[in-house]
Amino acid sequence: MNARGALGKYGEDLAVRLLEAAGMTVLQRNWRCGRTGEIDIVAHDDTAPGGPVLVICEVKTRRTGAYEHPMAAITPTKADRLKRLAGHWLADHGGPPPGGVRIDLVGVVLPRRGAPRAEHVQGVA
């Protein structure tokens, strides 16, 4: 694994811990759909108002001083890709739960010193 892959895996590991601490159940990590792309984390949120929600979670990890903040990573093109991937995942796994589907983002910033900072934003797309 190269340095970029290790950084991404570290951020995803932090994101999984953050989502689980918020009461979510992680169903799958790094789900690939051919050349369409990959979903970083698929989770189930039983605490959502309106019933259980399937969460498609994109994780972006950056070091301090990177060109853009991780939260700027969800462009309209990326949002469309995540929606298509969510549709493929649902087709492969029996459809949406009663509460529907939500696309979230976890942004992780790794400072030069100190603990990493992770931010979870729900419903980004």
Automatic annotation (TrEMBL):
In terms of superkingdom, the source organism counts as: Bacteria
Which Pfam families does the entry mention?
A: UPF0102
MF (Gene Ontology): nucleic acid binding
Under InterPro entries, the record lists:
Restrct_endonuc-II-like, tRNA_endonuc-like_dom_sf, UPF0102_YraN-like
Q: What family is this protein classified in? A: Belongs to the UPF0102 family.
User: How is this protein named in the record?
Assistant: UPF0102 protein DWB77_02276
Organism, scientific name: Streptomyces hundungensis
Write the lineage as a comma-separated list: Bacteria, Bacillati, Actinomycetota, Actinomycetes, Kitasatosporales
